């Protein structure tokens, strides 16, 4: 349906939505453009009834208001507008049962990711079903990022399975009630006026005093006039390197993310000569456990400052990163409010010859193992190694994403704006990172100078 219909309500924007408005580039680019979306894939084993699947898709759109919510940006004040549920599009693609299975899945996923998802056409989630045979399918979901984040995508997939199960049993879906994104908007407004939020603001004011985000030189200036696309360079991290990372994390009472992030900070130190390194990462941004199953765009932008000047060894750097992470995550606050305490933070990223990068490592808690859904079995597909020249949009900058799956190895991706960097530069950057990571995990007693 079109969003030209009269809105049914006026709900204040969340801080995450206000953050996206900072990068608003209209209907063709940026966070409100058709390529700012998130995709996911799930293997489905068993005989799948397409009519029941369509009904389950509709049920999920009816269940989660965020999937049919418009961010009204051209009225004062901007607000959320919830619309009635409509049927999501389901496209069926036949795949070859004798061909390279993983290659076909990744090629189709890249196609789905390259397709637009118009924020002005509801609902904001669409589905593609790739079928290898009557009992062997892959369900792919494409949701606009203003409506869902990676965490929410897993919740959506789980609810599709539950609704399908109930529909196949001849009864309406019987899912527990869930809080809506508008509930979160109201809770967040109250929380940001609380003493806990004041304490978080004071923490960031102290922590980021005098800090500026660390940037890398670009191949092309922002003013080059070249049309922007976001390319994705995907890669694999060998099992031995993953095992060494996990082992070092255990020995240092850290998480694998902390070790991986330390290597990234040391790489930036090596490339830029900057010792006071500031890199953004992301938090789930859900604020309270009651919103764990709420569908919406919650993910929060959070800068981590690691001043490496007093670190003599790699082990010192890991200990610093651990301390920084523990403190920062315990003071999570929407980036818009954090910026008010450190207005100088993003100034370096405004240089037309430089660009900032964000770093994240993901391990989904949902559906990493096969889940029985009536006569079906759902399994999340997390492995992607096939690069693509244009995919989901990164509004501005470089995005590192490492996926720590249930296997012994790991995969990752580098998303970058092609009007700022060349593919060769990104390949070199990745090679440098893996080199530093291997040195970090094999010799944590090494001096930083040896890197």
TrEMBL record:
Q: Which biological processes are named by the entry's GO terms?
A: amino acid activation for nonribosomal peptide biosynthetic process; lipid biosynthetic process; secondary metabolite biosynthetic process
Recorded GO cellular component terms are: cytoplasm
Under the heading CDD domains, the entry gives: SgcC5_NRPS-like
Q: What is this protein called?
A: Condensation domain-containing protein
- Please give the InterPro entries that the UniProt record associates with this protein: CAT-like_dom_sf (IPR023213), Condensation_dom (IPR001242)
Species source reads Amycolatopsis lurida NRRL 2430
Q: Where is the Condensation domain?
A: 10-341
Which Gene Ontology terms cover its molecular function? catalytic activity; phosphopantetheine binding
- Which Pfam families has this protein been placed in? Condensation
């Amino acid at each position: 349906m079109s969003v030209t219909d009269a809105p049914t309500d006026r709900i204040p924007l969340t801080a995450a939505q206000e953050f996206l408005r900072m990068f608003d580039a209209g209907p063709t680019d940026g966070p409100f453009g058709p390529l700012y979306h998130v995709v996911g894939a799930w293997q489905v084993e068993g005989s799948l009834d397409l009519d029941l699947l369509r009904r389950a898709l509709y049920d999920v759109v009816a269940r989660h208001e965020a999937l049919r919510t418009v961010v009204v940006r051209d009225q004062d004040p901007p607000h959320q507008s919830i619309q009635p549920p409509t049927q999501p599009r389901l496209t069926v693609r036949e795949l070859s049962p004798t061909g390279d299975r993983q290659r076909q899945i990744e090629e189709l996923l890249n196609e789905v990711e390259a397709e637009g998802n118009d924020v002005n056409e509801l609902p904001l989630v669409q589905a593609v079903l790739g079928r290898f045979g009557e009992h062997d399918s892959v369900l792919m979901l494409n949701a606009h990022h203003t409506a869902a984040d990676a965490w929410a995508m897993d919740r959506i997939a789980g609810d599709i399975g539950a609704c399908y199960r109930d529909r196949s049993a001849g009864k309406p879906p019987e899912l527990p009630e869930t809080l809506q994104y508008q509930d979160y908007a109201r809770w967040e407004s109250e929380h940001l006026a609380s003493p806990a939020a004041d304490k978080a603001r004071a923490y960031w004011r102290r922590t980021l005093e005098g800090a500026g985000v660390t940037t890398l030189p670009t191949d092309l200036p922002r003013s080059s006039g070249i049309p922007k696309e976001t390319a994705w360079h995907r890669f694999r991290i060998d099992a031995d390197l993953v095992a060494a990372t996990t082992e070092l994390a255990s020995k240092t009472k850290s998480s694998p993310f902390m070790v991986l992030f330390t290597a990234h900070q040391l790489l930036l130190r090596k490339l830029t000569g900057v010792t006071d390194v500031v890199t953004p990462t992301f938090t789930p941004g859900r604020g309270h456990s009651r919103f764990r199953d709420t569908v919406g765009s919650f993910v929060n932008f959070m800068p981590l400052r690691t001043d490496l000047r007093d670190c003599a060894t790699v082990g010192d750097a890991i200990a610093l990163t651990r301390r920084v992470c523990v403190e920062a995550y315990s003071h999570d606050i929407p980036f818009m409010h954090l910026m008010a305490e450190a207005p100088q933070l993003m100034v370096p990223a405004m240089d037309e010859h430089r660009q900032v990068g964000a770093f994240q490592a993901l391990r989904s808690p949902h559906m990493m193992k096969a889940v029985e859904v009536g006569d079906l079995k759902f399994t999340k597909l997390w492995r992607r190694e096939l690069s693509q020249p244009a995919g989901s949009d990164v509004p501005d900058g470089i995005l590192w994403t490492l996926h720590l799956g249930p296997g012994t190895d790991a995969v990752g991706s580098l998303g970058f704006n092609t009007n700022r960097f060349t593919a060769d530069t990104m390949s070199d950057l990745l090679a440098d990172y893996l080199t530093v990571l291997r040195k970090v995990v094999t010799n944590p007693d090494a001096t930083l100078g040896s890197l």
